[in-house]
Each structure stands twice: as C-alpha cells, then as structure tokens.
C-alpha cells in the first residue's frame, strides 16, 4: 500500500511539473509578445505559409521530445511555438552548428530556464536530424516511416542514406542522388565571356560528384583573380542558364555550384549545349551580395 501511495505521489508530481512548465511558457509568451517580434508572429499564418514543411519540422522535434513533454501525455502541438520561431530563421545554407545554436536559443527563448530545457549538448541529435532534413528533405514520420526528396546531396552522405534505406522498413520513397553528367569529373574547362567592355575568364574542374574547383578573372582595373571550391546546389530541378541558348534557339538546363561566404555568394551554372556536339558547355556566372545580383555574365567554352 505504501508503494502504491509513493507511485501516486510521483505521478502527481510529474503532472504538476508539466502543468507548471506549460503555464510558465504561456506566461512568458504573454509578457514577451509585445517586446519580441518572433513571439508576436501569428502561428496560423506561419503554418499556412510553410505548409508541410512546418508539419515535418514539428514531427522531427516531437520525435526527439527534447524536454520529455510528450512522454507525459501533453498534446502533439505542444512544441509548435518553438517550431514557429525556428522555421522562420532556418536557412538552407546553415551549418549543423548554426542549427544547433538556433534550436537551443529558441527553446531558451520560450522557457527562459536552462534547468527546464537541459544542457545544450542534449540537443545535438535533434540538430543533426533538422540539419539532415533541411539539406535533403529526410525525416521520420510519426509511424516510423522515412521520407526523403530526390535532390542533389553531398556525395559523402550518399552511402549513409543508402545504408539506412536497406536497414529500415516502411519507406514511402526510394532514395536517389542525382548528379549531372557534365562537367566531367577530373577534366578542366575554360570559359570566356565579355560584358560592358570587360573580358571575363572562368576555369573549372570537377573534383567529384558534388564539387568543382574554379578560378575567375576579368580585366577590371585592380581586379584580383578569385580561386575557390563550389558545392552543387541541393535543388530538385536544374536551372536555366538563360531563356535561349547563346548558340541556338533552344532552352537548356544547368547544374548549379555555389560558394557561400558570409552574405556574399558566387554561383556557377553550367550545362551542355543541347545541339552542340561532344561536351561543349555553356556557363553563367553570378555574384550576389545580400541577395542583390552584382555580376551576371554568360560564357561559352
């Protein structure tokens, strides 16, 4: 009888603790909504804007249940406020470390107490899951079934996902990694272009399925050549270099390789001429700073 009373006491304490946590969260929301624009974002509007992406992110967070709230029987929408403020700040280019920082920051924002949300290290697995989903569309739903988009993906990850597919059941989609045939791996290509009386040159060499090494130069005064490595963009579809080919009237698609540095981005789009023979390629070079295009030049090799 004493043991039963002790068990009942523990259960009541857990219920009171969860109730206290959720009540505290509501009070914090009321107090900070005026001062914090993220708090004041309309949840229904964010859910409508992001659609299934919101649901997928909520599913990932629910499966990890970082504060063990769902394990106590709270509703499945308990983490939606955190999903709301995480998803509006999540960007494709974020590293796993940046996502880890963002997640912990948002849980701390809502609960204001690290003794409630736990240590930052305990969010590493959740950060890894969100990072993988953010880059590949891969996540596990409530039934334990895995979903993944057929997109470009870093080749170092391919073996890992293929192995996972073989071990797990209930997959609704077969994983595929798409890589363009051109430019050929190991071969160097030189491209020449001209715009606004300035001559441009780009040399690229495909290092592997997902990366190219590049060198860009032009005849601008005081210009310095730029060398780097660009990684294939993780997109479902190819890009059009321009509406019509420079060499004919046919449209053609291209793979996109990106070098990201802070708020600046160098984009190299390269695709094979649809009518040209052999491996004649066409290229488009774009430079962006804070999402504003500052260079846009087309090339032929």
Shape: elongated
First-to-last CA distance: 86 Å
Topology order in helix (H) and strand (E) letters:
HHHHHHHHEEHEEEEEEEEE
Number of strands: 11
Structural class, from secondary structure content?
A: alpha+beta
- Unreliable segments (pLDDT under 50, ≥5 consecutive)? 1-18, 242-251
Question: How many individual helices?
Answer: 9
Radius of gyration: 25 Å
What average pLDDT do the residues reach?
76
For the largest beta-sheet, the strand count, sense and barrel status come to:
9 strands, antiparallel
- Percent helix: 25-40%
Count of individual domains = 2
Proportion of beta-strand residues: 15-25%
Descriptive report:
The chain has 9 helices and 11 strands. It has 301 residues and is of the alpha+beta class. The protein is elongated and about 65 Å long.
Which characteristics define this entry?
single chain, about 300 residues, alpha+beta, Lipocalin, 2 domains, two-stranded antiparallel sheet, 9 helices, 11 strands
Produce the secondary structure layout:
Blueprint (H helix, E strand, L loop, with lengths): L1 H31 L4 H4 L2 H8 L1 H13 L15 H8 L8 H16 L2 H4 L6 H13 L2 E2 L5 E2 L7 H13 L20 E8 L2 E9 L4 E8 L7 E7 L6 E2 L12 E9 L2 E9 L8 E9 L2 E9 L1
Antiparallel strand pairs: 1-2, 3-4, 4-5, 5-6, 6-8, 7-8, 8-9, 9-10, 10-11
């Amino acid at each position: 009888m004493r043991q039963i009373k002790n068990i009942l006491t523990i259960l009541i304490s857990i219920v009171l603790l969860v109730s206290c946590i959720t009540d505290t969260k509501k009070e914090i929301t009321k107090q900070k909504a005026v001062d914090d624009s993220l708090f004041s974002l309309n949840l229904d509007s964010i859910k409508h804007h992001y659609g299934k992406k919101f649901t997928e992110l909520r599913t990932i967070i629910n499966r990890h249940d970082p504060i063990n709230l769902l394990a106590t029987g709270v509703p499945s929408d308990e983490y939606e406020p955190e999903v709301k403020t995480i998803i509006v700040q999540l960007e494709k280019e974020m590293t796993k470390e940046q996502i880890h920082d963002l997640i912990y920051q948002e849980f701390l924002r809502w609960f204001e107490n690290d003794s409630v949300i736990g240590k930052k290290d305990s969010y590493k697995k959740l950060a890894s899951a969100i990072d993988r989903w953010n880059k590949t569309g891969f996540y596990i739903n409530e039934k334990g079934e895995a979903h993944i988009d057929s997109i470009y993906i870093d080749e170092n990850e391919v073996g890992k996902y293929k192995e996972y597919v073989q071990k797990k059941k209930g997959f609704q989609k077969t994983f595929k990694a798409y890589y363009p045939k051109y430019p050929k791996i190991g071969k160097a290509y030189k491209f020449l272009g001209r715009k606004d009386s300035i001559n441009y040159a780009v040399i690229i060499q495909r290092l592997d399925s997902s990366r190219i090494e590049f060198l860009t130069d032009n005849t601008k005064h005081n210009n310095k050549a730029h060398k780097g490595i660009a990684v294939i963009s993780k997109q479902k579809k190819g890009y059009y270099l321009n509406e019509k080919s420079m060499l004919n009237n046919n449209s053609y698609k291209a793979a996109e390789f990106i070098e990201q540095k802070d708020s600046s981005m160098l984009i190299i789009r390269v695709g094979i001429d649809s009518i040209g023979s052999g491996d004649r390629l066409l290229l488009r070079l774009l430079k962006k700073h804070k999402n504003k295009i500052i260079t846009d030049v087309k090339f032929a090799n």
